Amino acid sequence: MAKKEQTYGDAMQELQDIMYRIENDDLDVDILLEEVKKAATLIKFCKDKLQKTNVEIQKILDKIE
């Protein structure tokens, strides 16, 4: 079965879940480190997705001018 491509919404939800666990749980240092690494990867994914979307929107807007 093919792996489902991650969406921006999924990534943001996962980031919110990580933030909740960090803020509300007494996490072990090793678990905290893994959560922070995962969050960094998700932030990069979201940033890249926003930049690509911005470029595509600008191309569309340029065509209608």
Write the layout of secondary structure elements.
Layout: H1 8-24, H2 29-64
Helix pairs in contact: 1-2
Keyword list:
mainly alpha, 82% helix, elongated, 65 residues
Provide an overview of this structure.
The protein has 65 residues and is an all-alpha fold. The protein has 2 helices and no strands. The model has no long low-confidence stretch (mean pLDDT 92).
Overall mean pLDDT stands at: 92
Given the C-alpha coordinates, what overall shape results?
elongated
Helix and strand element order = HH
- The oligomeric state of the chains shown is single chain
Number of helices: 2
Brief overview, please?
By secondary structure, this protein is an all-alpha fold.
